[in-house]
């Protein structure tokens, strides 16, 4: 598959202004793999790479896990990244369950429930957080996170992580590596409606606002996210004081 042209993304670039991103470069897959195999610090990654569509035989080597088989069982996505590449805190826009299997290197994953949406500084009209999980001054810059509880795991080759529909996740590649994800539609009607709204109305409203207002819309979204987090933080503080 080395001759295939792949879309490469730079994890250092701030993409908070949109949920729909564009590639930073197009290179041959073999060139990208040569870079990642060195295991040097490198911010570049490939995500949502439907390699099975290009080479169906690979699905034999990376079969869909039994629990994920069904309507989306043939739609597998690969994720490749170099050491110290990071994936910002977000939840999947379609609100599907995910079975995420890791095959090389180590990858740290941090998970949060949807119960903490506002405390996680969710940006309006998309599924991303304003908060930087690896920020050294995280509780000074994002004080509402003091009231959030999550899960942290380091994935090793062969591990499969189940990410429930709507769960926030942040990923840090401790080594160069790659993973494969298969999705399973949630049977919860709320998840189905939310996913449909995210993919249609909210996504395109956000894109439209971003197109016409640019950085002004980004600043407004940041402001709204901080206001919501502060309001939710005060509510949590009152609950703790009452108890």
Structure at a glance:
This protein is an alpha+beta fold and 243 residues long. The chain has six helices and eleven strands.
What's the layout of helices and strands?
Blueprint: E1 5-10, E2 25-28, H1 29-37, E3 44-49, H2 51-54, H3 58-61, E4 76-81, E5 86-90, E6 97-102, E7 107-112, H4 138-141, E8 151-155, E9 160-163, E10 168-173, E11 177-184, H5 189-213, H6 215-242
Antiparallel strand pairs: 1-2, 1-3, 3-4, 4-11, 5-10, 6-9, 6-11, 7-8, 7-10
Provide the descriptors you would attach to this structure in a database record:
single chain, 243 residues, alpha+beta, 7-stranded antiparallel beta sheet, 11 strands, globular
Kindly describe this structure.
The structure is a single chain. Helix content is 30%, strand content 26%. With 243 residues, the protein is an alpha+beta fold. The strands form 2 sheets. Strands 2-1-3-4-11-6-9 form a 7-stranded antiparallel beta sheet, with helices on one face. It has a 4-stranded antiparallel beta sheet with strand order 5-10-7-8, with no helix packed on it. The chain starts with a strand and ends with a helix.
């Amino acid at each position: 598959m080395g001759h295939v042209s792949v879309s490469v993304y730079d994890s250092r670039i701030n993409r908070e202004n949109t949920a729909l991103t564009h590639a930073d470069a197009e290179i041959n897959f073999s060139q990208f793999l040569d870079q990642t195999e060195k295991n040097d610090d490198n911010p570049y990654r490939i995500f949502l790479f439907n390699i099975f569509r290009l080479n169906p035989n690979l699905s034999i080597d990376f079969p869909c896990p039994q629990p994920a088989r069904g309507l989306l069982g043939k739609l597998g996505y690969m994720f490749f990244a170099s050491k110290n590449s990071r994936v910002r805190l977000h939840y999947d826009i379609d609100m599907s369950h995910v079975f995420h299997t890791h095959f090389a290197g180590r990858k740290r994953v941090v998970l949060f429930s949807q119960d903490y949406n506002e405390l996680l500084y969710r940006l309006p009209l998309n599924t991303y957080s304003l908060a930087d999980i690896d920020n050294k001054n995280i509780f000074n810059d994002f004080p509402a996170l003091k009231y959030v509880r999550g899960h942290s795991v380091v994935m090793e080759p062969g591990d499969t992580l189940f990410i429930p529909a709507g769960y926030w996740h942040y990923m840090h590649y401790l080594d160069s590596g790659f993973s494969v994800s298969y999705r399973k539609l949630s049977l919860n009607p709320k998840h189905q409606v939310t996913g449909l709204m995210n993919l249609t109305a909210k996504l395109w409203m956000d894109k439209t606002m971003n197109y016409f207002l640019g950085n002004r819309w980004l600043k407004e979204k940041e402001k709204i996210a901080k206001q919501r987090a502060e309001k939710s933080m005060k509510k949590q503080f009152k609950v703790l004081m009452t108890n």
